[in-house]
Amino acid sequence: MARLPELVEVVIIDALPGRLPTSVVCTVDDRPLNRQRWREAVEGLPSVEEPVQLRWAELPTTATWKVKRTELMAQLIAQEAILNCKG
Question: What is the pTM of this model?
């Protein structure tokens, strides 16, 4: 996050079946993520899938604003299944 001040949250999900770890990102004011800046920021870090951008309000969180990673993973799997059915 220090490399991209436009980010308000980054969550790494590493348990999606058959995938590299996935970065889930939220930006200030839900602005679109600049993909080129993202690629430059993660250069030299371990490989990850292209980031998934969500609005902060879409993240499943606890009462103390911690991201519920298991629920987020299930949400991502469900979204991918829906996209695959439409394809």
Answer: 0.84
DSSP run (H or E) holding 84: helix 69-86
d(CA 72, CA 80): 12
For strand 7-13 and strand 22-27, is the pairing parallel, antiparallel, or unpaired? Answer: antiparallel
pLDDT tens digits along 32-75: 999 999 999 999 999 998 999 999 999 999 999 999 999 999 99
The answer to whether 65 and 40 are in contact (CB under 8 A) is no
Q: Which CATH superfamily is domain 7-86 in?
A: ANL, C-terminal domain (3.30.300.30)
